[in-house]
Amino acid sequence: MSTSSNTLAKSRIAVLGYGSQGRAHALNLRDSGLDVVVGVRKGGPSWKRARDEGFKVAEPADAVRGADLVAVLTPDMVQPKLYEQAIEPNLKPGAALLFAHGFNVHFGQIKPRADIDVVMVAPKGPGALVRSEYERSRGVPCLYAVAQDASGHAEARANAYADGIGGARAMLIQTDFKEETETDLFGEQAVLCGGVSELVTRGFETLTEAGYQPEVAYYEVMHELKLIVDLFYEGGLTKMLQYVSETAQYGDFVSGPRVVDAATKDRMKAVLADIQDGSFAKNWTAEYKAGLPNYNRCKQADLEHPIETVGAALRARMAWLHPQTDKPARALRAMPPC
Ligand code: NAD
Ligand code: MG
Asked: Which atom of ligand 1 is nearest to the CA of 123?
């Protein structure tokens, strides 16, 4: 155990939720030598999985009782009720409450008791990567923040937790709940999920409406996106420009700004303003409480978009996406050495 995780050495950590982040955090903290109990609903699939993977498992309220640090790793929309019913009445004085996203605290959906520490450790990657990097003795960089420091040790506790999940092996960046929440929401709305999926589907529609085959359009605007994103990920715009042809670069320079122009940026600013003034959080909370009518309608429309029909058929023929049916590769491995 490193010096930093020693801050939590005598602490009991309750990890609430055993999904993408919860499972990875619980496993990494345990492998870092820390005392972990997993809090999930009895009888659910997460309960069984956590128990099968060797954890002490308890209902959330029971896991919180006696814990020195409670990591809230359930979906964001269920956290306010979970806080009210299972956490607040059972959390011991001076304990720490930890989040992996600042949404509920920043937008006042959870108003933590004054006597506890409130911190955030947000890995910049999905749970599967948080786990697999830890297993390779590496880690995924994390943002960390302190919203409330009742003990005087809140930052040390956040750092110790980040160390315990492996984040400190990579990089810790200090932020605050406002910055993490607003930038995270903006990224997923304007660029990552919202922006990219609209760009891809509008590109697909433009080609197919002009009479080109949907299969060809799919390859051009959806499939090949991965090649570009991988280059961004590995080496930014610089690497992308090194690896695409001169013709593609010239097309990028003259046509990119025609598609995404100053008006698009103005609309990005409007999206950011809605996040900053709380309108997005208010609308999303109301939508969730109303039973997700618009969410379900939009999701269904995405699932029924023609790019999904053609995509499913094409992906079924990509053997590398289905390793369990990858017979030739397995046959090769089984061959005796010559
Ligand atoms: P998830 O949907 O993968 O897992 C949620 C877990 O909570 C499951 O084990 C589920 O059974 C459990 N759960 C659901 N409702 C519950 C309830 N009422 N009571 C108790 N348990 C309940 O969630 P996730 O993606 O790991 O997200 C957890 C937190 O991590 C969120 O705050 C999210 O914003 C944040 N986060 C996620 C990612 C990511 O890549 N997924 C990255 C950074 C931060
Ligand atoms: Mg969309």
From this structure: 43
